[in-house]
Amino acid sequence: MAADSGKAKGTSFDRFAEAYGKGQSEAELLMEREIIGANVGCRGYTTLAQAAELGEHLRLRPGARLLDIGAGRGWPGLYLARKTGCEVVLTDPAAPGLRVSLRNADEWGHRSSAAVASAASLPFRRGAFDAVVHTDVL
Amino acid sequence: MLRPGGRIAFYTIHASPGLPEREYQRVLRVRSPGLGTFRRDHIDLLASAGFALVLETDVTAEFLRIAKGWLEGRERYSDQLRAVEGEAEFAAGQAERQRSVEAIAEGLLRRSLFVAEKGR
Q: May I ask the CATH class of domain B7-118?
């Protein structure tokens, strides 16, 4: 983890944090494949096709730096890095999901890093990224 | 954080415009990110941060399909999920998903894709 610049608190946050830190059950993996189109650590509404569309609009390429805000387990940032060869930085106020995402990134051989940070206070310098993505965070 | 000419792209869930107060309060009771916002809020926020809007697309039909997919999928695998989550958590989650599906189907909630470029 690169930084810790603020943690949200509250029931909803705790619930999300706990859920994203857990492994997925066989039933969850089956549902995710059926609904989202692949096993990518998604519990929300962004499908594989929609993630691919994000990548096209962001004009990602090898060497570009992408910031994924509210990344949870790394969806869709890790997928976009894998698909385009860009470098991704994942941020989320909850550490458990990011730990899962970094383990996945290691397994996939990705160049990625993560920061525990709220979207309201991100610890990056001006102009540090070529692209920013988030899905249903704001 | 974004360099000049860099792009931001995001999906977001927002309330439908022109909702009567009672319906807007219903939207706020559905637990989902961005609920209190309207489409216009995102456009204004992007403009005030120096972004030019490149694209805005409504993806509510797909949103409803996915929301129903999770609700029905969880029902289909309810035995396994109850064993993992416990009865109370499973029931609360399903009730929440049911409220979301109803709100989308009734036109209270929408989901959109926004793409914008940072000014040079």
A: alpha beta
